[in-house]
Design goal:
Elements: E1 14-21, H1 26-31, H2 40-46, H3 49-63, E2 68-71, H4 73-78, H5 80-88, E3 92-95, H6 108-126, E4 132-133, H7 144-150, E5 155-156, E6 166-170, E7 176-179, H8 189-192, E8 194-195, E9 200-201, H9 207-224, E10 227-232, H10 234-237, H11 240-256, E11 259-261, H12 264-276, E12 284-287
Bound molecules: zinc ion.
Length: about 290
């Protein structure tokens, strides 16, 4: 099924990165700036991150795994102590915009302004220059790759063109960046989110139904040597019943065996090594697709 397989470390069958995007209420300020302060109900739903993130960290502690959190710069500055807790537990914090702005809706100068501000905020709060990025709402722009390369990042995790890590090549400079792809089938919004104020009305699935979708993808990744990256949100999947299901999911993955749980930074570094040693020939996309 996979034409150009990668050999995962220690004979693992697949790589798993449970990534959470800790948006919190940042998303109100980019999309609804004029009325954000009036959206109390929706803000309260998003601010559940305060409860969910420490709970997720405990779950990771229990399973002894390190994972990746994408955090907008504004969120890191507002909820600094939570982000510091993520770092002190040994997890990775990566970039996710400043106000959760959508890069492909901005002109290049404005996009770069907010991108640089997000790098500064995450570096200051975590004490470490970030190495990864996920475009808010997957809205990668024609200029995003140049910004990521300019900031010496190692990887992006917003795009969806393969089952394995692949390369994004910048048409202008010829430089490349590793893409750690995901897919909407591993995103929790379509499964669980119903918010009329945000214009998002998916019928809410039970954790069992949602897990069927997520685990079908995992079982296939395990069977064919793939990469499984979730795009989850603490305020969505960190609620009690859903987090119970995640606990069971990790137990299931562990009992199946041969699963490499890693941060995206670890997966990107490993991929880079494999490429450098001529052990892996990734698919490559040149951006922009159509100038
Ligand atoms: Zn987000």
């Amino acid at each position: 099924m996979i034409a150009n397989p990668i050999t995962w470390p220690n004979g693992a069958r697949c790589a798993v990165a449970i990534t959470f995007d800790m948006d919190s209420d940042s998303i109100l300020y980019s999309d609804h700036s004029g009325r954000a302060s009036t959206m109390i109900g929706t803000a309260s739903w998003l601010r559940y991150d305060r409860v969910a993130v420490p709970r997720i960290l405990k779950l990771y502690q229990k399973h002894d795994i390190k994972q990746t959190f994408f955090v907008p710069g504004w969120t890191a500055e507002r909820y600094e102590s939570i982000v510091r807790e993520i770092v002190s537990e040994g997890h990775e914090v990566a970039l996710h915009g400043y106000y959760h702005e959508k890069p492909n809706t901005l002109n290049p100068e404005i996009e770069k302004y907010w991108f640089d501000k997000s790098v500064d905020a995450i570096t200051r709060v975590t004490g470490k220059h970030p190495v990864g990025f996920r475009a808010p709402s997957y809205r990668f722009s024609k200029h995003s790759l140049a910004n990521l390369l300019g900031a010496d990042l190692l990887y992006d995790s917003s795009l969806m063109s393969d089952d394995l890590p692949y390369l994004l090549s910048d048409k202008e400079s010829g430089r490349t960046l590793i893409e750690l792809p995901t897919d909407w089938s591993r995103d929790d919004w379509p499964q669980y989110t119903n918010n009329s104020e945000l214009g998002y009305g998916m019928p809410i699935k039970s954790p069992k139904q949602a897990m069927e979708v997520f685990l079908a993808e995992f079982d296939a990744a395990w069977a064919y040597g793939g990469l499984w990256v979730s795009v989850w949100h603490p305020y969505v999947s960190g609620r009690l019943a859903r987090l119970m299901a995640i606990d069971e999911m990790i137990q299931y993955m562990k009992s199946k065996g041969g699963v490499w749980f890693a941060t995206l930074e670890e997966i990107a570094k490993y991929t880079q090594q494999q490429i450098e040693h001529g052990r892996y020939m990734p698919y490559q996309d040149t951006l922009p697709f159509h100038a």
